[in-house]
Amino acid sequence: MKKISLPALVFLLLFSLLFCGFQSGAAQGRDKTFTNSIGMEFVLIPSGSFMMGRDPAFEEGNDSELPQHKVNISKPFYLGKYQVTQTQWEAVMGSNPSKFKGRNNPVEQVSWDDAQAFIKRLNAKEGHSRYRLPTEAEWEYAARAGTSSAYTFGDDKHDLSGYAWYDGNSGDTTRPVGQEQSNGWGLYDVHGNIWEWVQDWHGKKYYANSPETDPKGPSSREYRVFLGGSWYDVAFEYCRSASRGYDSPDIRDFLIGFRLALSPE
């Protein structure tokens, strides 16, 4: 067998690395971050798999977070780096419904229906239909950022103050977005500050029979899901990655806002 010379071996290795890099870039075909016309920043979330729901051996919570089950997110998508702020809401909707006023504080007292109206106007403003709420599975997958612990940083609730505004440090109000540490994928306030509406209808037993790939929630129910906890909530119960709440899609509450997803072109 003819031996390959060292220069030829180095060339083949470099070519292989460059080719793989080109393939990876071509597969993604998009930037890692994106900023839209009103200054909303988005982070590209890669496709992948994770265990959705809480681990009953290590976390307390409600039965609707069970059973923990494998979910595949088949396509990359963009997710807001921050919760939608009052400045961004007003730029699109022309008013500010929030109880806790602050330009860079998250908008709250907006219903799920209100969030859909915002999305419709923003899509019209930018000439496409790619903005939407994330699905519940997409939101939890992005919040976890590759982790399987109760929080994106681990299991110790005493570390939450470095990542979230909750009842232990919020001062009974929302806070400007992005002031605490981000998760591993560069998303801020996935724990606390405000609960975030997602697209799904709420089903208490949906986890037991949901599809493994790209679940979108029940086809119809009475309530919509929100995730992440808020400035008002206790750490161990409501600010975990798997924690989920629900309410009527027309309810407005100063604990609830949202974060936008953006489907790639």
Write the layout of secondary structure elements.
Elements: H1 6-28, E1 33-35, E2 41-45, E3 48-52, E4 69-73, E5 77-80, H2 86-93, H3 112-126, E6 131-132, H4 136-144, E7 195-201, E8 224-227, H5 235-238, E9 244-247, E10 256-258, E11 261-262
Parallel strand pairs: 7-10
Antiparallel strand pairs: 1-2, 2-5, 3-4, 5-11, 6-11, 7-8, 8-9
Structure description:
With 265 residues, this protein is of the alpha+beta class. Helices cover 22% and strands 17% of the residues. It contains five helices and eleven strands, in the order αβββββααβαββαβββ. The strands form three sheets. The chain has a five-stranded antiparallel sheet. Strands 9-8-7-10 form a four-stranded mixed sheet. Strand 1 and strand 2 (41-45) form a beta hairpin. The chain is globular, with a radius of gyration of 20 Å. The N and C termini lie far apart (49 Å).
How would you sum up the major sheet? 5 strands, antiparallel
Order of H and E elements: HEEEEEHHEHEEHEEE
Terminal-residue CA separation: 49 Å
As a whole number of angstroms, the C-alpha radius of gyration is 20 Å
**What structural category do the secondary elements indicate?**
alpha+beta
What percent strand? 15-25%
Number of strands: 11
Overall shape: it is globular
- Per DSSP, the total helix count is 5
The overall pLDDT average reads: 91
What portion of residues is helical?
10-25%
Low-confidence stretches: 9-28
- Order of strands, widest sheet: 1-2-5-11-6
Describe the structure in brief.
With 265 residues, the chain is of the alpha+beta class. It has helices spanning 6-28, 86-93, 112-126, 136-144, 235-238, and strands at 33-35, 41-45, 48-52, 69-73, 77-80, 131-132, 195-201, 224-227, 244-247, 256-258, 261-262. It is built from five helices and eleven strands.
